[in-house]
Amino acid sequence: MAKLLLIQLLLLVLYVSGHERRSIRFQKPFEQDQDGTYGLCENEFGQMYYYKEYEGQENVCGKDVAKVKYSNRINETGWAFVEVEVSGRVIEPYQQGYAAGFVEGELLSSQKMLNSLVIKTLSEITFF
């Protein structure tokens, strides 16, 4: 959060001070370790929890509600891929929508994802 505020302050100072044309470039591309499959699960008491699947891990969820598969290929292709799957156990359309929106939102709202968006956007902007 502090980094984001610092970047906003820097942008304001550059805009107000009227410096010559400047461009911000970042030394290395943003990398994140979030590739993988994430899921929303229901335990035996009806409570929901969010988890990440790891390769070689036995199934940690008895009652899957929804899963999201994420692959960040922004540095190679310019795209990040998100695939959402809702369990057949969830019958009502509004529940399917809620479950799909929850797992996607939980993944994409992380601080790293927001930082990636800000850094990617700022690296393409030229300041006057």
TrEMBL record:
<protein>
    <recommendedName>
        <fullName>Phospholipase B-like</fullName>
        <ecNumber>3.1.1.-</ecNumber>
    </recommendedName>
</protein>
<feature type="signal peptide">
    <location>
        <begin position="1"/>
        <end position="18"/>
    </location>
</feature>
<keyword id="KW-0378">Hydrolase</keyword>
<comment type="function">
    <text>Putative phospholipase.</text>
</comment>
<keyword id="KW-0442">Lipid degradation</keyword>
<dbReference type="Pfam" id="PF04916">
    <property type="entry name" value="Phospholip_B"/>
</dbReference>
<keyword id="KW-0325">Glycoprotein</keyword>
<keyword id="KW-0732">Signal</keyword>
<dbReference type="GO" id="GO:0016042">
    <property type="term" value="P:lipid catabolic process"/>
</dbReference>
<comment type="similarity">
    <text>Belongs to the phospholipase B-like family.</text>
</comment>
<dbReference type="InterPro" id="IPR007000">
    <property type="entry name" value="PLipase_B-like"/>
</dbReference>
<dbReference type="GO" id="GO:0004620">
    <property type="term" value="F:phospholipase activity"/>
</dbReference>
<keyword id="KW-0443">Lipid metabolism</keyword>
